[in-house]
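Sample intake sheet
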Amino acid sequence: MESDIKYLDEVEILWRGRRVSYRVECGGVRRPYSLAVSNNGGYVYTAGVVPVYCDEEMGRNLIVEGGLSDKVEYVLNVILEIIRRVGRFENISDVKRSVLKTNVYLDELTQETYSEVNKGYRRVFGDDGPFPARTVVKADPPLGIGVEIEAVAYISR
């Protein structure tokens, strides 16, 4: 019996004019989780996504350069690509509308960091939305990278 559960372990996005890979395995090390899990035509749950990409030549993940708003923008683009792939969407607007909820984990929660998160969200979702429901909390994202975001999206089939 074939499972209706789908797992995704790797995506590629175009970031600042360059193709980069976000994956659970980099440099021969496989981390014990999936980027996303979905039932067949329902919800997509992403793992926490952080602003890193796999550099195959160096055999390790590298942290995305830039400020917090750049890192948020990168992470949201990775999340949208994950959802696009799992949901087999063709139109990015449909992907954006499918995102129901995000949880944002910041190493620092100040008015300035909150504004930077909003700036990154606006670059991805536009000024008028629709925007997903969102929770922002102070946490300790790994590697000292400042931000981690997870999402839930609805895909109808």
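Comment: The chain is about 25% helix and 35% strand. The radius of gyration is 15 Å.
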